[in-house]
């Protein structure tokens, strides 16, 4: 059953990538069944000698009307045995909409024959919807960096790059500018800006206040109109849970940690927000709300500093954590453990083109899928992504490890 679970997770990752694209014009006239096929990694567990699994059935499609169900196993299509979903996809290209097809399926220990009439894939393309956008790439600024950039405030977001011919580029906003206000509101994070844009309309004019080379400037930006990418699979509830939410436990087999959840504070140091049950820190004298100042005599300002120190220490070795508690400096000894469960629960939701990540119910990361795709496309256009290098990195990925950026756990 372990391999079957792996198959389901692989299917989700493929769906996630597909969710970033719209159906292209050249797909008009393609035959369509209305299922999400997946490979079977262990035939013995599945109870068959060959076939592909139906991971989902799309509403109001030929597959649903013919009675095909999720978890059915397709054994044959018009008498030809099916061994993987790539074979199935290529065979389907030989058919046209309107043709009748016969499937042999395996369900609950019995074989059944299902006949259906193929649909036109273009008929299931969702109607376009649009959202407002600025045409910028944003990066958050750490508290300790504001002063270095010449600011006397603790808010603002770095515009790391701009979209050529985008709304901000047209009025003269540049990469390297710092956005201080959007529509009269101070901005603190890129996530906040993404959420603010959800409540705005294309062609709406908004003020954007920026800081550049020691000067403050205000621009009137006419928001652009950008299509929200969808797929015919977008509304399918994969795990029959509301709001398209997926939940996994996080495993990092090779990581090291103390067992702390920490957050940066305005002054130098990190505050301990949580001590994980069963971790090395739980058995030490460390307490929640302690402020970590140094580890092994080395000052720490962010999670990366702690990770760097732990990289140089062996598992089970002792470290001295200097903390500030109630105005007093204390030195607490603890050990470095092998990271097992980074978080009790990880939730990922996709809503209107935004992917949100939650750890233990607290929002930790939000990704704008449109911007992610733009960056990928930009990388290809400018030669910034080398296919050979990318392919080698993908081969090394461990599918049962999901790494979450800025999780704050050490």
**Strand portion, in percent?**
25-35%
Q: Gyration radius, to the nearest Å?
A: 26 Å
Number of domains: 4
Question: Please, what is the CATH homologous superfamily of the largest domain?
Answer: PDZ domain
Mean pLDDT: 76
Unreliable residue stretches: 1-28, 231-251, 381-387, 393-409
Largest sheet: 6 strands, antiparallel
Name the CATH class of the largest domain: Mainly Beta
| CATH 2nd-level architecture of the largest domain | Roll
Query: Based on helices, strands and strand pairing, what is the structural class?
Result: alpha+beta
Q: Percentage of helical residues?
A: 10-25%
Looking at the structure, the CATH topology of the largest domain is Pdz3 Domain
Shape: flat
Task: State the helix count.
Answer: 9
Give the number of DSSP strands: 28
List keywords for this structure.
410 residues, alpha+beta, Pdz3 Domain, 4 domains, 6-stranded antiparallel beta sheet, 28 strands, disordered N terminus, disordered C terminus
Topology of this structure?
Blueprint (H helix, E strand, L loop, with lengths): L1 H17 L12 E2 L2 E5 L3 H4 L5 E6 L4 H4 L7 E5 L2 E2 L3 H8 L7 E8 L2 E8 L1 E2 L8 E5 L2 E4 L17 E6 L4 H5 L6 E5 L2 E2 L3 H9 L6 E8 L2 E8 L1 E5 L16 E4 L7 E2 L2 E5 L5 E6 L15 E5 L2 E2 L3 H9 L6 E8 L2 E8 L1 E2 L7 E6 L2 E6 L2 E7 H13 L5 H9 L15
Antiparallel strand pairs: 1-8, 2-3, 3-4, 4-5, 4-6, 6-7, 9-16, 10-11, 11-12, 12-13, 12-14, 14-15, 17-26, 18-25, 19-20, 20-21, 21-22, 21-23, 23-24, 26-27, 27-28
Task: Please describe what this structure looks like.
This protein is of the alpha+beta class and 410 residues long. The chain folds into four domains: 2-124, PDZ domain (Pdz3 Domain); 129-228, Pdz3 Domain, CATH 2.30.42.10; 242-249 and 344-395, no CATH class; 256-338, Pdz3 Domain (Roll), CATH 2.30.42. It is built from nine helices and 28 strands. The chain has helices spanning 2-18, 43-46, 62-65, 85-92, 167-171, 190-198, 303-311, 369-381, 387-395; strands spanning 31-32, 35-39, 52-57, 73-77, 80-81, 100-107, 110-117, 119-120, 129-133, 136-139, 157-162, 178-182, 185-186, 205-212, 215-222, 224-228, 245-248, 256-257, 260-264, 270-275, 291-295, 298-299, 318-325, 328-335, 337-338, 346-351, 354-359, 362-368. The strands form seven sheets. Strands 2, 3, 4, 5, 6 and 7 form a six-stranded antiparallel β-sheet that branches. A hairpin with a 2-residue loop joins strand 26 (346-351) and strand 27. The longest helix is centred in the first third of the chain and has 17 residues, at 2-18. It starts with a helix and ends in a 15-residue tail after the last helix. Mean pLDDT is 76; it is low at 1-28, 231-251, 381-387 and 393-409.
């Amino acid at each position: 059953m372990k391999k079957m679970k792996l198959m389901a997770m692989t299917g989700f990752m493929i769906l996630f990538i597909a969710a970033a694209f719209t159906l292209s014009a050249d797909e008009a006239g393609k035959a369509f069944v209305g299922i999400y096929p997946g490979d079977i990694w262990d035939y013995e567990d599945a109870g068959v000698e060959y076939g592909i699994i139906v991971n989902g059935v799309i509403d109001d499609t030929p597959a649903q009307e013919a009675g095909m169900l999720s978890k059915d196993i397709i054994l044959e299509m018009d008498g030809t045995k099916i061994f993987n979903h790539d074979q199935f996809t290529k065979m389907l290209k030989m058919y046209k909409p309107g043709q009748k097809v016969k499937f042999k399926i395996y369900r609950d220990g019995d074989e059944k024959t299902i006949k259906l009439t193929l649909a036109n894939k273009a008929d299931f393309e969702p109607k376009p919807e649009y959202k407002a956008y600025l045409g910028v790439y944003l990066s958050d600024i750490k508290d300790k960096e504001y002063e270095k950039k010449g600011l006397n405030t603790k808010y603002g977001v770095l515009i790391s790059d701009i979209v050529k011919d985008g709304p901000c580029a047209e009025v003269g906003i540049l990469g390297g500018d710092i956005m201080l206000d959007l529509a009269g509101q101070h901005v603190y994070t890129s996530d906040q800006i993404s959420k603010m844009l959800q409540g705005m309309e294309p062609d709406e004019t908004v003020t954007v206040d920026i800081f550049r080379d020691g000067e403050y400037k205000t621009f009137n930006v006419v928001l652009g109109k950008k299509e929200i990418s969808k797929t015919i699979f977008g509304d399918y509830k994969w795990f029959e849970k509301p709001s398209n939410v997926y939940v996994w436990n996080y495993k990092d087999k090779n990581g090291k940690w103390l067992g702390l959840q920490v957050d940066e504070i305005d002054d130098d140091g990190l505050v301990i927000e949580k001590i994980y049950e069963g971790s090395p820190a739980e058995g030490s004298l460390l307490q929640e709300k302690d402020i970590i100042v140094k580890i092994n005599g080395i000052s720490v300002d962010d999670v990366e500093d702690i990770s760097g120190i732990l990289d140089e220490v062996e598992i089970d070795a002792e470290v001295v954590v200097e903390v500030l508690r109630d105005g007093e400096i204390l030195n607490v000894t603890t050990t470095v453990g092998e990271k097992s469960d980074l978080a009790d629960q990880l939730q990922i939701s996709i809503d209107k083109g935004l992917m949100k990540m939650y750890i233990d119910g607290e929002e930790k990361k939000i990704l704008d899928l449109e911007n992610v795709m733009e960056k990928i496309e930009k990388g290809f256009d400018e030669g910034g992504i080398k296919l050979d290098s990318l392919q080698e990195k993908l081969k090394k990925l461990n599918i049962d490890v999901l790494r979450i950026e800025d999780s704050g756990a050490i």
